[in-house]
Amino acid sequence: MTQFGLFDAPLSLIEGERGSVTYYAGFLPIASAESYFMTLRDGVDWHAQRRVMYEREVDVPRLTAHFRLEDLASESALDGIAREAAATVGDVAARVSGKLDVPFNSIGLNFYRDGSDSVAPHNDRLHDLVAGQPIALVSLGETRRMLIRSKRAGESAVPIDLEAGSLLVMSYATQLHYTHGVAKTRAPVGSRISVALRVRLRAS
Question: How far apart are CA 167 and CA 190, in angstroms?
Answer without folding.
Answer: 19
